[in-house]
Amino acid sequence: MSGIDRISELPESLLTQILSFLPTKQSVQTSVLSKRWKNLYLNVPGLDLNLSLIPYDADELLLSFLTFIDKLLEFSPEPVLFKVKVKCRVTMIDGFRDRIGTMINRGTQHLDVESSTYDIEDDSFHHPCVDSMPMNLYTSKTLVYLKLTSSGLRDPGVVFMPCLKFMHLEEVKWRVHLETLLSGCPVLEELTLLRDLDDDYAVAYDEFTVMRVRSQSLKRFRVLPLRQVRDCRSRVNCTLEIDVPGLKIMSLGEDQFDSIVVKNLTSLLVVELDIKFFVKFGVIFNPWNLAKSNEIRDFLNGISSARHMIISAKTVKALEYYSQAEMIPKFNNLSRLEAVFHSNLLQFLPAFLECFPNLKHLVLKVVHSEEMEEGLELTDVPRCVSSTLECVEIQEKLQWEEGKMKTTSYFLGNSAVLKKLILSPTAYDPRDVLESEIWEMVNKLTKRSAGCEIIIGAMKEEVVII
């Protein structure tokens, strides 16, 4: 029936739960709806505060805002703040650390803090200043999810977070070793890192030239891509050591470390690589550098138990460089591969696939390059193509005019057990070629596997050629 406010008739516990999904500012604004809603926001079991919206020179407004936060913390009869999200502004906020400590003491399970970072100018020198997390963070018995951005982590001496399962650390300022932090998280399942490449403290102390990821419980580990493209190396030489016997998923995004050492990755299922094995922007390693080649070989051997691999174009390029001096190790367990190839590197494809003798599913993303050499010929046929490959999916834009689908023809003509070849919706540009022309060209190709289906997914109605 129209005109009836059914939402306000819901139980208070359900209403406060709904409000917990809103930023605190919006939650407070619901107090004007009616008497029923006047004080509901005070009982919400969470905070979502954006202090970065406060102008730099509005000290009185900031003080009022902090007083309001204190009111929220003191008023609520419910002792638990399940979820806390705070985004600070660039300048330091007095009392910020103490209030975070109070929130942690209230039994917070989900903590997401973006701290402030700024420089203090003194006698023409800039001294970085950051918000450090309170010491009670390291002994929280309730935290399940922790995300810190630009925060300082001091050495607490003792770390014990018995319920923490997810840790996300972006550009934190380290005063405690990552290994020490992880040692106090016995049930941690997922770790995400984004390095601060210009941490002044780490520059001054050699002990922070190694980051060790050691855990018996960790299942997923990610290194995020940098927030912006950098044109120089990090001022901090740093090695990443990964020793996680139970790790199942690993994603390494962009080069943030001078070297990567992996150990005991016997449970690895999925690995995603977007690295070129060197930190300096725009530079590929010298394949005749013996030390670097040995480092890459050991890394590849260390992840060889993976069953599913996803690699970017720059990783493919780095491996092509590496193959000029060394043989790429075999990945005997790998059954699914997703790889991005620039078209001028397609000649490397057969040699590359030789490294995956038991491959069953290939997703190939081909990116057109103006440098592509004319007369591409794919003649070598690796073991996986001839005997194990069951599904090939070709994505991105191909040059249909020059070469007449040589990559597609290569797999159809040489794959004895191929069951399905898919041309994805991005496999060609309809402005350059008609769908009917694609169908005609594909239909004329020779198929070694008589039962192979060819699926052209870009057409308005999916066409299957048997």
Any overview of this molecule?
- This protein has 466 residues and is an alpha/beta fold.
- Helix content is 22%, strand content 23%.
- The protein has helices spanning 12-19, 24-29, 59-75, 96-105, 178-183, 200-204, 290-302, 313-323, 349-353, 383-387, 406-414, 435-443, and strands at residues 46-50, 83-87, 110-114, 117-122, 125-130, 145-149, 152-153, 166-170, 173-174, 190-194, 210-214, 220-223, 239-243, 249-253, 259-263, 270-274, 308-311, 336-342, 361-367, 391-395, 420-423, 453-456, 463-465.
- A 16-stranded mixed sheet has the order 1-2-3-6-8-10-12-14-16-17-18-19-20-21-22-23. It has a three-stranded parallel sheet with strand order 11-13-15.
- The termini are far apart.
DSSP strand count? 23
Q: What's the assembly state of these chains?
A: single chain
Euclidean distance between termini CA atoms: 56 Å
Strand order of the biggest β-sheet: 1-2-3-6-8-10-12-14-16-17-18-19-20-21-22-23
**Biggest sheet details:** 16 strands, mixed
Mean of all residue-level pLDDT scores: 81
> What radius of gyration results from the CA coordinates?
28 Å
Q: Which bin fits the share of residues in helices?
A: 10-25%
Q: Choose one word for the global shape.
A: globular
Number of helices: 12
Any low-confidence stretches, pLDDT <50, length ≥5? 400-404, 459-463
- Strand content bin: 15-25%
- Main structural class: alpha/beta
